[in-house]
Design brief:
alpha/beta; Glutaredoxin; 5-stranded mixed β-sheet; two-stranded antiparallel ribbon; globular
């Protein structure tokens, strides 16, 4: 008599569960490139447009910080301006908004003209030495990093379809 073998149900379910767990992205990680969500934000110093050094490490730990790595020629960065305005309207000075210009094909004069025309709600830093871009492992312009009060990265993302109010809310809710 021939014996038929049936797959053992627990084994099939176990394999499916493992496959699902391995393919589903963790909720905390919104973007696969750049600095890792959950890591400590690097305390780097980047100059502002007037050449004055700004110590990001001094900002981390006081209130949530949203960093956008941007350029004047970046259409996605321009498309994110309304979302940044929403963050500013929702949280005001409870969150620090910093626009780190990556300085690729940008000059300080070009940036100043852009600021006069578009009025972004962030403080502008000029990353001419690439210190910030390297420290945050920036993959492209429009890259957003949100850091909570404890100095931990709670969100990263890129592109124009980002819910930045929700990302900052996550930073506000972190302990």
């Amino acid at each position: 008599m021939t014996r038929t073998t049936r797959p053992r149900v627990p084994t099939v379910l176990t394999v499916l569960t493992v496959l699902i767990v391995l393919t589903v992205r963790p909720l905390a990680a919104q973007f696969d490139a750049g600095i890792a969500v959950g890591s400590k934000a690097p305390a780097v110093t980047i100059n502002d447009l007037d050449g004055k050094p700004v110590d990001l490490g001094g900002l981390f730990g006081t209130k949530p910080v949203l960093l956008e790595f941007w350029a004047t020629w970046c259409s996605i960065c321009r498309a994110l301006l309304p979302e940044l305005d929403k963050v500013h309207q929702a949280y005001g000075d409870k969150v620090e908004l910093i626009g780190v210009n990556v300085t690729v094909n940008d000059s300080k004069n070009r940036i100043r003209r852009y600021l006069e025309e578009h009025h972004p709600p962030f403080r502008v830093l000029f990353d001419e030495k690439g210190v910030g871009a390297r420290a945050f492992d920036v993959p492209a312009t429009s890259f957003i990093v949100v850091v909570d009060r404890a100095g931990k990265v709670v969100y990263t993302g890129s592109g124009e379809s980002q819910d930045l109010v929700a990302a900052v809310r996550r930073a506000m809710d972190a302990h």
